[in-house]
Specification:
alpha/beta; 9-stranded mixed beta sheet; elongated; Rossmann fold; homotetramer
């Protein structure tokens, strides 16, 4: 069994900011993909904003078990119909890992149903990431905490729904805290938000970050066939009801008529 | 203290379907509003699809503590910018009660981030609603279960996120079950989904249903000032950090620059 | 409507440790009770370990809407039957606020079903408590964060179940984080764990801490009659079933026999 | 990788009730174990109440990845220290599947922290089990619902904490509903409660029930090393703090002293 991951990158700052370009000469998405490939059970391809259909064609998505999403500078450039397409695949069971500034991506806000706001500071301060769910599959093999010497600060309040589980909480040198690892389920799809990953720091070269990403892909993978029925609201006619019943009362719908959407 | 409720009704079937018109001659929204007014701590106004801005102007919403939503036949007629406006007020702390076929309303799908699909059958069968959280404020004063002799069936799988709490589960005569009372929080706003309420049956004249609606309005009321800060992602500059830190590493943002959205 | 709070204190360190005695000359329980009384809707009595039945007689508990619990040095001195009695009242709907070192009290461990362990350091370091659920009733009137200049450190992993809601997260000067405000429900009773409150510091004289305690008491108050039925597993005989059914298959129980416990 | 399951059976009714004895001539535990062995990745042993230490020695538990628990007639016969031993292993990461009348077992009540009460009726009525989380690993390969023609009824209110996820809800012929599949986490251990399994019916010979049990064992399996640190509350001394701090304020504890428990 191999898990097919697709790493989506915005792919802008690598080309316009010298610091980012030096840290990630092949693009952040490629660095992340290489990190995933260290697990022989994962195959990883990449897709970027500039590709046709942002690289997220029906064909690519149908062959993607877990999608990773990194965007920051130009969330608004992502086409609405592609966002809808990705959301549908998540509901059907595709896993989704949203990274760092992806908290403001269209797809994350759509799936959360909240603003996904936070406080921030770009000062290269120390972040210490504490594991709050020690034996969670996403934390497998990690120490009780790990540090990133230089990171952007994200501070609470982070306006997302209460998660299923809080896996990580970050401590920041400047005095803030942040829920850095959160799990959700939307339809049949598992979602993980992971905070670190500011583009001006070497975060995606960090050993522990790599471990988290590989763990998260494995955790979010759903081997079941896509739950395409999730988009429908089928009528169960009286004559097919599980227990015998007799129709009563007033009616809106004619026999066989579809419901309103 | 008075809670200001606004009952939003689609207001179509009352005029085009004879059964519905007879059951709710003043409109379903008006019947629901009258039910709410039985609690002297609640004032209830109404708004309908056909009003300018669907009756949900900035002014009305700013004076609404809890919004109730009933729609069915024409969800798509609700303007996108009004949906966005309502969502923003929920995030700021306005309560929202979504009723029956409102499961497919734009506002509910937006706040849930899922398809909100289900199975259904319009056969006037018996529904028995069991309380699964007996001392929940929304279940106050209710017996362990209550019955609606004629209702539309909604069956699982109901594709919504795991709720904070499951307050009611329905048994249907034809053999299905459904999570009929679910609580959520999105931003500072509390949300309650309540299943019963098909327009061809006298559900909103039922004593227990009325009690649930009044309880739900009281539960969803948030006396705090609107949390308007929830829409922002403010920068906390280095010189204002809570603990003294020195800026390090590469940078994307110039001093004072806003973040990307 | 008045909420009847009982503040339970272990009442040991006030008498054997000079620092604690000076900070809380009337006992920590009395300082906490005085803080609660600043809300005119709350009446607060106290009870201590040394009282007969630890001050938690059936009579006292039946007149207690919300119980606050502070213990540290001698959790094992609390009698098992009193723990069971308190648990039963929580299941029936009494609110419970567990404070600081009460994480290791018998009653908290019993209600959580987990070890409730954590890391700690007594160094009088700075704690900054961030609100992670801004409009939660327990956070009403608080700023986005508040500080306690001297507190004991509690660090993750805190081995409690995933909460219903995370209301506060603490930042510590020495580098740790902690989920400092957590809500739970057990039976009909609401439970709030609140981290600060080490006895060698003036925490319970802090204005924001007082506000949290009063808010928490108000939040945990359940006006419903005690849900005494929660202790039973009643049989619903065939002849009283809601839908007509005919008895079939093999049987263990004779008619009218009670279930096994 | 093989998952080591231990099926614990009370092993009483098989010997004293003729109906049960005929359905499960080798004992219910053995039938369940045989069902598990249909998955070649699972090895299953059994243990019964009558064994020394109820068959749950330190050695057996240390070699058990997932424990399944069926008891009914004599929960009180299980020794307290064995219950504590099992709880500790769950907290360290052992999975636990609690079956049917095990809702009233000491171990389940201890881990839930609630009465775990419900309504019941032994009438051999039809149970229809609906999947409410379609792509959950525990529901893998199941149809949208399955039926058990003869089962004992369990009805709400089921006084357990809100679960992480509701996987199944049952419909009963006599008019009740029940949350039949619930997931929890306690410490590092995953817990699944599964309702069906009354001893006078052939439930554990059912194909779908067998599938659920095998799925649940696979889901509850935690490959990580036992989290034995979960029982401790270690002190992190000032001189080893992650950030440099200076000790301040009053103190209770002498250097190196253990915390109170």
């Amino acid at each position: 069994m191999t898990i097919r991951a697709t790493v989506w990158g915005e792919n802008i700052h690598e080309h316009v900011n010298e610091v980012v370009g030096k840290l990630y000469p092949e693009g952040m998405h490629e660095t992340i993909a290489q990190s995933l490939r260290q697990d022989k059970n994962i195959t990883a391809r990449t897709a970027v904003l500039q590709d046709a259909e942002h690289g997220l064609t029906d064909s690519v998505l149908s062959q993607t078990d877990v999608l990773l999403w990194w965007g920051h500078k130009d969330h608004s450039a992502v086409a609405e119909d592609i966002v809808e397409r990705v959301a549908r695949r998540v509901w059907e069971g595709m896993g989704l890992i949203v990274l760092h500034s992806g908290h403001y991506s269209k797809i994350f806000k759509k799936l959360m149903g909240t603003p996904c706001s936070l406080h921030w500071r770009e000062a290269g301060e120390r972040e210490r990431i504490w594991v709050t769910s020690p034996n969670h599959p996403i934390a497998a093999g990690l120490p009780p905490f790990f540090e990133l010497e230089n990171e952007e600060m994200y501070g609470e309040h982070f306006s997302v729904p209460e998660p299923l589980e809080t896996v990580f909480i970050s401590w920041f040198q400047g005095g803030e805290v942040f829920r850095s690892g959160l799990t959700y389920k939307r339809g049949a799809g598992s979602i993980f938000y992971f905070r670190p990953g500011h583009e001006t720091y070497p975060t995606y070269h960090d050993v522990n970050v790599g471990k988290v990403l590989r763990n998260a892909v494995t955790w979010a993978y759903n081997p079941a066939a896509p739950l395409t029925s999730i988009h429908d609201a089928p009528n169960t006619p009286v004559e097919q009801s599980h227990e015998p019943i007799v129709e009563r009362g007033g009616k809106l719908h004619k026999p066989g008529e579809a419901g309103y959407k």
